[in-house]
Amino acid sequence: MTLERTLILVKPDGVRRGLVGEIIRRIEAKGYQIYALKMMTADRELLTAHYAEHEGKPFFEPLVEFMMSGPIVAIVAEGNRVIEGFRKLAGATDPTVAEPGTIRGDLARDQGTKVVQNLVHGSDSPESALREIGIFFN
Ligand code: IDP
Ligand code: MG
Question: Any residues with Cβ below 6 Å from ligand 1, and which?
Answer without folding.
Answer: 54, 59, 63, 93, 115-116, 118, 121, 124
